[in-house]
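Give me the fold.
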Amino acid sequence: MKKAISACALVFLGIAPQACLQDPLAAPGGGEMQVLLHVTGGFAGADFTVLLDGETRSVVGVECLNLCDFADGEVLQSLTEEQVRYVWGIFRDANVLALDGEDFGVQCCDQFYFNLDYRDREGRSRVRGSSEALPHELKTALATVQGLVSGTLPIIVNFDTDPSLWPGDAFQIEDAVIVGQSLQVRLNYGGGCRTHDVKLISWGGWMESDPVQNRLFLSHEDFDDPCDAWITRDYTFDLIPLKIAYQESYGVGQPGTTTLILLLEDPMLASPQGARRLEYVF
C-alpha cells in the first residue's frame, strides 16, 4: 500500500525545497515529528531506511536493501494521534535534541548500527551509534520505531472512547497471551485481497478492584476486502503506554509487583463479561 507523505517529509528526505524547515508545523503532541532512521548491521547485515511522518501519522519504508520486506515508498503502518504522541514522548524523554551531533561509535560486533535524523517543531538532531553504545532512553525510542516497522503497534489509551466509534469488521480471537510488555493475539478473519488494519484500544478508565482492571477491545478494518479466504494472523501490541497511564494514576511500584487485570473483549466468548481475563504484571 502506498500513500503520499507530507511536504515536510519530502523536505526531510532532501527531495523538496527547504521552506518547511524554516516554518515548522504547529501541530501539538508529535504531529510535527519526523524520524528518519537508517539501520545497518546485525548478524545478517541489515540495511534499510524508514521514515516516521508525524503529519500523515504513517511509517514509510524509504529504502530496502537487505533484511527487510517492503517496497520503496510503501506505508508500513498507519498510526493514530495517540500512537504518534506516544512515540514523540519517548524521543522527548530521551532528550534527543540535546544529543545532536553525537556519534556513540560501535561497542562490539554484530550489533545494529543506527543513523538517526530527528526533527520536530523545536529543532533537529542527528545521532549515530550501535545498539549497545547508545544511551538507554534513546535505544528504547529506536526500538519502538523498529517495532513499528516489524508490526508491533502501541496500545491506544483513550478512556473516553467507545468501541462503537471504531471499525468493527468480524474476526475471531484464536489465542491471546501477555509476554513481557506485549500482548500477542492470533486472529482469524475472512479476506486475503487487502491489508487489514487491527488496533488495540484501552477504554472506560480504571475499574477500582484489587487488582485494578481495565477493558480492552480490538478494532478491525477490512477495507471491504472482497475475498473470503480464512486468514490466520498474529499481532503484537506494546502495552507500555497503558503501564505509563497506570503509573500516572497510582504511582510507580517496585518492578514485578504490580498486577493489572486486562479484560479483552471477545465477540465469540460466552462468558458473563464477554472478555478474556489477562494478567499484566510489571
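The longest strand covers residues 197-207.
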